[in-house]
Every structure is written in structure tokens, then in C-alpha cells.
């Protein structure tokens, strides 16, 4: 699939979705749209990403394109009118358009009419399916092994860890797949439910439904976790995912040095052993499970400090740990997952 | 407020909302509509409820009426067409209509037009406000003391316990109010947010907003809990309420003899000490709190067995316990709440 990623004025640092699609999606990204960085290339900004030219508009993209991904979201999730010419041009070229905005492209009169005319799909992935319902408590019955990434906080690397674990399982010869629960994961995998947008009563049910759908086709499912069970605002989503997934094993994600809740700095993070105990004891009445390994984001540390931090994190949680981006996923860690 | 409660073919046992409104709302219920029980009275069916005549239709209700409450909900939450003549007649008499259905009366063309003509309000309480957002983690800052009813399971008496605690606090001279989170509570109190219908990311935020709104006017708030933190389907809602409320004290609700999750009988309930520990340790990183008392539904037991069960429940949770309907709320229990 030949894909263009829209990231106007925000690539790379404020375009996490764009980076996620570049790094993990099967798509061939043929261009990134960023009028501020036009003329440079992806690798001029982020050395270890797949490379692609950065151009100013759809008019500068040559050859056929299958889809346009809106790879940024302004605060509030609105649609920026300055993106309209590119979305319009994409549809007129027959591209599907994928977006994770609160503003739904399919409800935009111009885009809806154009898409009908050019037989394109407008895929608003933040709109949950309208037939979700409550969980039945049956995700534990599937034959596939279910892993779930959980966190000490939001924004500690659960999505990245999920992708890296699946890649490592696949590299070791296992049939593994991601169960995406957030917008970047959904764009990368081309399926999934944005669990933080569903009716609260259906949180666990949404995760259960995805697992039942994916399990027959795979030996391992890695469910992308969200938030943290001790987060002042987002714990409901985390708890619903934990109980809906009924995971066989959990992987704890953390950022080195994080001591307070991101954006809620008056709340201290509990210690790693406390967090481990809480996830396990909260899950147990629905599904006995265990935190078997850890993934630490050490991007703020130098090489020596990163090694030390990973070792300390593993000791605190009582299992193998790694920074999956910096150090990869080794056999020790794979061993406790399988 | 002179109120009529619609409960066709379901009063009393399958009309919990109707019973809740009769028992707890300030409304003067002037009639219950149930075409199957027409000609009888409420007390012919439930001795300890406020009495009212049961009639077949709005045409049989004399005198002025301020509001019609739809006090039943079919499975799926649809609107039964057999109710239409009564709703129509109510609006034509100038009544407001309150319903907790998934089918919104305000979206019904006939009712909307009639309500506009007769200047009536159609209040669909299951529709959450459209301006909810994420919690800020500030409910713990209010001056009012915040109590929260939590449960070992759903359907163990959290709504009833909430109402009885507020009544007991008021009888002891305290300024106390309910924070309603479910449809029956909202109908009784005439305000509140149906927390199980909000976007999952806003669960804690919805509770926080209600507390910030109510706290300046009261010394005590009792937040109506929902579900259970170990429920396979509903734990997300419970967790969001727990962290959104940041309660000073918790009251644990349970039904005597309940050993498995209601409707999910393959899941055993954890022991009472386990449940106590889990609520307290899950709340602690956001708000230190304690389960200080228990409320046990003993309606399935005889008098002696009920006393024994309440004593055992109190011993298991380490505090005073009662069946608030059968034994009331005594000074011992009020003492640990205040």
C-alpha cells in the first residue's frame, strides 16, 4: 500500500502518529506532507526511521497513492482548514483517507460528496463501532496466548512496546498479532477499536470483542494497553482493558526517571513493586495473571545509565527487562512471554 | 411536585426505578400506571412504600400533574409503543416527561412537536452532557466530606444504601446530599450524570464535575457507586468513579449469601477482606481512603440469620455494619462516617 502521511508543521516531534506509521506500518510511505520541512527527508530528522521525502502538498507527490493518513492531531482533535486542499486532492486522486480526529471527515459535506464521486473510503478511526456491548467474561477462553502491555503511567511506551514484542515474536517464528486500542495502533494495523472513546460500560466488552475476532488466526495476541490503573483521569480505560483482555501474561512499561503522573504532577507514581502487586491483585478475581517482564523507555539517559536503569527496573519487578528500542527484545525476555 | 410513574405490566418486581422513585424522591406520587394491576394500590404489593393508587392510563389520573416518570425499562432500553398514548396524554396536560431509555423521547418527532406546543420538557436522563472531559484530579480538594458506596458486585444495594446514608446524616442534623450516577438515582434527585453511558475517557471526569458542582452547598456528599472493581464487565465504570470521587471514606455494600458475580456465575466473588484491601490499595495512589463501614442486603434471610450475617460482615470488613433497610443506620455507623 502506497501511503502519504500528513504532518504539516509538526514533523517529527509533534507528529507521533506519523512516526508510528513510518516505523511500524506495512505501508510504503511515499511522502510526508509538511510545508515547513518541505525539501528535507525523514532521515534528516529521525535517523532510524524508514526514509521518505518530505513535500509541501499532495501536488508534489508523484505516482499512484492508495491512502492519505492524517498523522497529527491538534489539541481538541479538530480539523485544520489548512489541510483541506491536501485531503481534497487525495480524494480526487482516488485515495482513501484515514484520520483519528474528533472531527469526522465522513461528516464533512465536501469530503463525503467527493469520496462518493471518486469511490474512496473516509475512515474516521476515532468513531467506535455502534454495536458494542458489555463483556461476557470469555476472552480467557481463546486458544491464543494473550499478552497485555500495562504501564506505570500514560506516555511511557506501551504502543511502541506492543509493536516491538509482536515483531520479536514474529522474528522468533511465532504467529503473533497486535490488538490495537488507540488511534496510532489502529492506523498502523488497519483495524481496532479506540477504547478510550467507547461508552464506559462497554470498555471491557470492546477489548473482548477484538480478542475473540483475532484469536482464531494467531498463536499470540499482544493487546496494546492504555493509561495506568492508578491514573487520576484514565484508570477506567486501563481497568476495562485489564479485565476485558483476561491476559495470560502482562508486560510492565515505564519511563526511566518518571516519578509523578504525566500532566498531573501532584500525584506521585507508586513504586514498581506496588504497581506490580496492584495489577496482579486487581486482575486475579477475573483472570489470574502475572507481570513477567518489563519495558523501560530510557531515551533520556546515556548508554551506561540506560543499562543500569534497565537492570534496576528488572530487579524491581522481578523479571527480565529491556528498552525495546535501544536494546531490543532478547531470548530471555521472549522466554518468559512464550 | 405531583408525579405519575409509568410501570405498565411490571409493578412492583420488575419496576425497580418506579419503586426507587416512590421510596426516595421528594415527589408526591399521585398514581402509578400499570394496566395489569389497575384498581389496586401500591401498598397492596409492597407494604412499606408510600401508598398511591394504581390506574390503567393517564386518563384515570385526576387533578394537576407536574411530571410523568417512565419507571421501567425493557431489555435493550427501547420505547414500548403501548406507552405512547400515556406519554402523549401527559404532554397534552402540560407534564414534563422523564425517561432513562436508550431511545430518546426528545428525538421522537411526535413527542418533540407536542412538547414544544405545550411547553413541556422531555428529559432523557440517559443522555450524558456533551461537554464532559477528562478529570483533573481535584475532587479531593473540596471542603465537603465525600463518601462513596462501593460493592462486592453489581445489584447489591449501593443506590439504596446511598439514599439511606444521606437520610440518616440529614436526620442527625448534617447537611448531606446524594451524588447520583445511575438512572434511578438521577430520577429521584433530579440531577446527575449516568456514568455508565459517558465516553470511557471521561468516567472519572464526570464524577469529579458532579462533586465540584455539589460540594459548595453541602457538608457531606454521598456518591452513588456502580458495579464492582472486580466485575468482568463493569469494573471500568467502578474504577473511574473511585478515582474521580477521591472519597474520604468508603462504605462497602454486599448481599448476604452472594458468592458469584451476578449474571457471570463462573466468576467467584473475592472474600470481603480481599475486596476491602483491593479498593483501598487501588484508591491510595490517587486518594488515600478507607472502607469504614458495611451495608448488607439481608432480604433473603430470616430475622436471626440476618443479625448473624450483619455481625459476620462487620467482622470481616473491620467496622460497623447494618442492613440499612431492615435495621436502619445507627449512631455507631454514623460515627465512623462523620
Give structural notes.
By secondary structure, the first copy, chain A, is an alpha/beta fold. Chain A folds into two domains: 2-124, NAD(P)-binding Rossmann-like Domain (Rossmann fold), CATH 3.40.50; 139-337, Rossmann fold. Chain A is built from eleven helices and 14 strands. Chain A has helices spanning 16-24, 42-45, 84-92, 109-118, 158-171, 183-189, 203-214, 235-245, 272-283, 303-317, 331-337; strands spanning 2-6, 28-33, 54-55, 67-70, 96-99, 122-124, 145-151, 176-179, 220-223, 249-255, 260-261, 264-268, 291-297, 321-322. A six-stranded parallel beta sheet of chain A has the order 3-2-1-4-5-6, with helices on both faces. The first copy, chain A, is globular. In chain A, 53% of the residues are buried. The model of chain A has no long low-confidence stretch (mean pLDDT 96).
Outline the fold blueprint.
Two copies of one chain form a homodimer.
Chain A lengths: L1 E5 L9 H9 L3 E6 L8 H4 L8 E2 L11 E4 L13 H9 L3 E4 L9 H10 L3 E3 L20 E7 L6 H14 L4 E4 L3 H7 L13 H12 L5 E4 L11 H11 L3 E7 L4 E2 L2 E5 L3 H12 L7 E7 L5 H15 L3 E2 L8 H7 L1
Parallel strand pairs in A: 1-2, 1-4, 2-3, 4-5, 5-6, 7-9, 7-10, 8-9, 10-13, 13-14
Antiparallel strand pairs in A: 11-12
Helix pairs in contact in A: 1-6, 3-4, 7-8
Amino acid at each position: 500500500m502506497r501511503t502519504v502521511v500528513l504532518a504539516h508543521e509538526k514533523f517529527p516531534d509533534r507528529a507521533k502518529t506519523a512516526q508510528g506509521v513510518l516505523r511500524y506500518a506495512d505501508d510504503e510511505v511515499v511522502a510526508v506532507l509538511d510545508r515547513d520541512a518541505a525539501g528535507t527527508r525523514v532521515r534528516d530528522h529521525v535517523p532510524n526511521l524508514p526514509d521518505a521525502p518530505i513535500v509541501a502538498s499532495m501536488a508534489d507527490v508523484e505516482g499512484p497513492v492508495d491512502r492519505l493518513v492524517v498523522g497529527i492531531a491538534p489539541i481538541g482533535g479538530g480539523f485544520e482548514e489548512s489541510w483541506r486542499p491536501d485531503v481534497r486532492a487525495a480524494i480526487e486522486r482516488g485515495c482513501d483517507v484515514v484520520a483519528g480526529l474528533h472531527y469526522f471527515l465522513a461528516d464533512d459535506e465536501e469530503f463525503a460528496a467527493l469520496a462518493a464521486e471518486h469511490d474512496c473510503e473516509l475512515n474516521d478511526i476515532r468513531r467506535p463501532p455502534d454495536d458494542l456491548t458489555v463483556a461476557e467474561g470469555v476472552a480467557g477462553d481463546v486458544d491464543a496466548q494473550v499478552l497485555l502491555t500495562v504501564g506505570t503511567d500514560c506516555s511511557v511506551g506501551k504502543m511502541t512496546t506492543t509493536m516491538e514484542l509482536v515483531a520479536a515474536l514474529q522474528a522468533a517464528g511465532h504467529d503473533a498479532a497486535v490488538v490495537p486500542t488507540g488511534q496510532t495502533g489502529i492506523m498502523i494495523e488497519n483495524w481496532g477499536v479506540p477504547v478510550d472513546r467507547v461508552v464506559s460500560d462497554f470498555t471491557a466488552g470492546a477489548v473482548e470483542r477484538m480478542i475473540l475476532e483475532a484469536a482464531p488466526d494467531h498463536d499470540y495476541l499482544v493487546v496494546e494497553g492504555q493509561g495506568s490503573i492508578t491514573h487520576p483521569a484514565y484508570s477506567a480505560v486501563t481497568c476495562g482493558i485489564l479485565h476485558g483482555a483476561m491476559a495470560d501474561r502482562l508486560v510492565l512499561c515505564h519511563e526511566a526517571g518518571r516519578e509523578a503522573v504525566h500532566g498531573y504532577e501532584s500525584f506521585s507514581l507508586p513504586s514498581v513493586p506496588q504497581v506490580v502487586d496492584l495489577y496482579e491483585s486487581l486482575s486475579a478475581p477475573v483472570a489470574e495473571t502475572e507481570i513477567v517482564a518489563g519495558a523501560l523507555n530510557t531515551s533520556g539517559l546515556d548508554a551506561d545509565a540506560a543499562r543500569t536503569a534497565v537492570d534496576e527496573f528488572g530487579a524491581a519487578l522481578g523479571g527480565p527487562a529491556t528498552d525495546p528500542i535501544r536494546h531490543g527484545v532478547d531470548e530471555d525476555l521472549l522466554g518468559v512471554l512464550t
